[in-house]
Amino acid sequence: MAKKKERKKTYKFIEKLIDKVTTSKSNNTEFVCYGHLVELLSGTEDYVSVTIYNTDDRYGGGMADFDFDYLTKELHFISSEGKALTEKIIATFKMFYSPRRIRVSYDELEYEDEDTTYEYDETDEYAPPVKHLNK
After folding, report:
1. Is position 134 within any domain?
2. By CB neighbour count within 10 A (0-12 exposed, 13-18 middle, 19+ buried), where does 18 fall?
3. Residue 132 resides in a domain
4. Residue 125 located in a structural domain
């Protein structure tokens, strides 16, 4: 019996989602885009914190969590379900803001994808985690 090939996620909806995020008012709103709940949080029009959920509610788990600063053009990732999604989000922001340069940063204590894991010292709750690249 032949094995079925596992399909990789392509995240085709990300371009339309990022377009909606960057053109909507970012002050504390949420909407559903292609079956994914998207939450926008901000206290100012120059910055937005975006959380994309796997389903149309919060109970399906988080897909990506990132911030974007419209003034400095910095895209900061807190978490992502995978490297392919992170790269798709980065490429989409670069497409929308070309030729301006988008700076990308990652949360050193929390960001994880399939290539990165963290080891925590259970004897010292204040010790920072040790980052390991799974390659």
Report:
1. no
2. buried
3. no
4. no
- Give 10-residue mean pLDDT values along the chain (135 residues): 67 91 81 91 88 89 92 92 90 92 82 64 70 64
User: Is residue 44 domain-resident?
Assistant: yes
Q: What is the 3-state secondary structure (H, E, C) of the chain?
A: CCCCCCCCCCCCCHHHHHHHHHHCCCCCEEEEECCEEEEEECCCCCEEEEEEECCCCHHHCEEEEEEEECCCCEEEEEEECCHHHHHHHHHHHHHHHCCCCCEEEECCCCCCECCEEEECCCCCCCCCCEEEECC
**How many structural domains comprise the chain?**
1
Question: Can you give the pTM of this predicted structure?
Answer: 0.76
